Amino acid sequence: MEKRPKSLETVKHVILVLSGKGGVGKSSVTTQLALTLSSQGYRVGVLDIDLTGPSIPRMFGLEDSKVHQSHSGWVPVQYDASGNLQVMSLGFLLNDRGNSVVWRGPKKTAMVKQFLADVHWGNLDYLLIDTPPGTSDEHIAIAEELRHMNNVDGAVIVTTPQLVSVADVRKEISFCEKVNFKILGIVENMSGFVCPHCAECTNIFSSGGGAALAEQLKLPYLGNVPIDPTFNELVENQIELRKETSQTLVDLYKKCNLYVIFERITNEIITKSSA
Amino acid sequence: MIAVQQQTELIPKPQLAAPEPEHCPGPESEKAGQADACAGCPNQSICESLPKGPDPDIEIITKKLSSIKHKILVLSGKGGVGKSTFTSMLSWALAADQDLEVGAMDLDICGPSLPKMLGAEGETIHSSNSGWSPVYVSDNLGMMSIAFMLPDPNSAIIWRGNKKNGLIKQFLKDVDWGDLDYLVVDTPPGTSDEHLSVTTYMKDSGIDGALVVTTPQEVALLDVRKEIDFCRKAGIKVLGLVENMSGFVCPNCHGESKIFKPTTGGGAKLAKEMGIKFFGSVPLDPRIGRSCDSGESFLDSYPDSPACTAILSVVDALRDEIGDI
């Protein structure tokens, strides 16, 4: 019997952000994709299914927000009054930010299912799903839930340049093949760092691993994103910055150096996902 | 159901009639078949009839691990902060002392990195009467990882929690470590099945404690806080906190920059806030990544680098904390 998650029926495109390796920037890529899409006028939702380490609330400066219950389901946290950017994460359901969620597999599976079934997104152009590292319970659950949906465009794979990371990312690609997620492309994050003192670019985590992987596996390569401490700073200080300048994170992000890079990546993803 | 890679079953599992429900106490638990969630579950009668009581395997594991003097877990709620890197550094550093026997165990089943970092990629495991023999990367440093059992390094292990628990148990039960001074256990990110299993199975044999690794940004500290909370809940002593990737010295102009800014005070402040020891900060060094990619010891290759000094002082602090020196 086919059962489709009701909450996703009003979503035009679903895109997953995956990586076998942790800490490569899945959440930061998800955030930047969401901000770029939102700046282009799309209605965007972000679903964080990293249950034991949810980072999305912090990335959007929404750590104190709570999810509300309505008759049609959970109402995601609205970034601002326009409702063009909505966020859902387990982080919003915890009482204290330091609390750990120590759950075994079946409970995580149930939570992911609930996220897909009960969240009332409304009409969305894009739903970005941020995932935990690995290929385990959360991933199996999300793949099972999405398997009958016809609005799943595919997955964006994030890696860092080192071989150690690329090795784990290969596993994630093999996972995508097994569950029939189309791979929209590979992003190489943390690719080089430009010294603010002398403008010399150092490849802290070497470079080129993502491009080589894409070429080897004949997958689209979306580009490399350098390490930019100003983006990190923007995320960490966004609440004060928003108060000072009364601009939203989307506006502030547009001034970031990374915006240009993500604009290109996003456009490529949009072309691929509407094809 | 998605086709999950079928490996030979490691432990006999109860044949359940349906997947476990959300609040399942676990078919192996003492409350199996009797908890609130069991009412109406199609598995109830199956679970109820399973043998109860403490897991007999725990006794075997305790006996097996009794020849290991110190057992250290390397933990972090966050991924990619350098757990495996630090595990490999710690192992190399300890093994530099010829009198010590060191073992390193990789419990990250979905993304095993340790074999590559210790230069043991592509090795296979040999089994003998006394169990599986670890792979020796130097005279006194043995290691064990799931990666050695995979036919193809690219294939993903798409396993649910239960199956991972079975493998972890097997690792603890069947690996023949022999007499070890140190066993360093590398873990995956998060606070889930692997973490619960390893702490449950190893508890009786006595874990010295956990070394928690973080990076300076608040996004990482947030998850690390959860891991420390987990250690408290699980009764694991936190030996100390290490801050990795703190600061970067440009090889060109020697100007220092904070790539991952400690806007909320970084690891030192977190350690203070949580009342745990702070072992120090290790700076970013591109050569660390390169050494890990080629499976060499960074400590041997670049003994004069500031990162090397920092790592060794952390190792000293750690040994001091567990009362070894």
UniProtKB/TrEMBL annotation, chain A:
Complex and partners: Heterotetramer of 2 NUBP1 and 2 NUBP2 chains. Interacts with KIFC1. Interacts with NUBP1.
Role description: Component of the cytosolic iron-sulfur (Fe/S) protein assembly (CIA) machinery. Required for maturation of extramitochondrial Fe-S proteins. The NUBP1-NUBP2 heterotetramer forms a Fe-S scaffold complex, mediating the de novo assembly of an Fe-S cluster and its transfer to target apoproteins. Negatively regulates cilium formation and structure. Component of the cytosolic iron-sulfur (Fe/S) protein assembly (CIA) machinery. Required for maturation of extramitochondrial Fe-S proteins. The NBP35-CFD1 heterotetramer forms a Fe-S scaffold complex, mediating the de novo assembly of an Fe-S cluster and its transfer to target apoproteins.
HAMAP family assigned: Mrp_NBP35, NUBP2
Designated name of the protein: Uncharacterized protein
Keywords on record: 4Fe-4S, ATP-binding, Cytoplasm, Iron, Iron-sulfur, Metal-binding, Nucleotide-binding
Main location: cytoplasm
GO biological process entries: iron-sulfur cluster assembly
Organism: Kuraishia capsulata CBS 1993
Residues binding ATP: 20-27
Keyword Metal-binding: yes
From TrEMBL, chain B:
PROSITE patterns: MRP
Binding residues annotated for [4Fe-4S] cluster 2, in chain numbering: 250, 253
Keywords carried by this UniProt record: 4Fe-4S, ATP-binding, Cytoplasm, Iron, Iron-sulfur, Metal-binding, Nucleotide-binding
Subcellular location: Cytoplasm; Nucleus
Region spans: Disordered: 1-36
GO cellular component assignments: cytosol; cytosolic [4Fe-4S] assembly scaffold complex; nucleus
Compositional bias of kind Basic and acidic residues: 20-33
Positions of [4Fe-4S] cluster 1 binding: 24, 38, 41, 47
Single GO molecular function: iron ion binding
Organism domain of life: Eukaryota
Alphabetical GO biological process terms: iron-sulfur cluster assembly; tRNA wobble uridine modification
Keyword match DNA damage: no
Residues binding ATP: 77-84
Protein purpose: Component of the cytosolic iron-sulfur (Fe/S) protein assembly (CIA) machinery. Required for maturation of extramitochondrial Fe-S proteins. The NBP35-CFD1 heterotetramer forms a Fe-S scaffold complex, mediating the de novo assembly of an Fe-S cluster and its transfer to target apoproteins.
PANTHER family linked to this entry: CYTOSOLIC FE-S CLUSTER ASSEMBLY FACTOR NUBP1, NUCLEOTIDE-BINDING PROTEIN NBP35 YEAST -RELATED
Protein family according to the UniProt entry: Belongs to the Mrp/NBP35 ATP-binding proteins family. NUBP1/NBP35 subfamily.
Protein name per its UniProtKB record: Uncharacterized protein
Native source organism of the sequence: Kuraishia capsulata CBS 1993
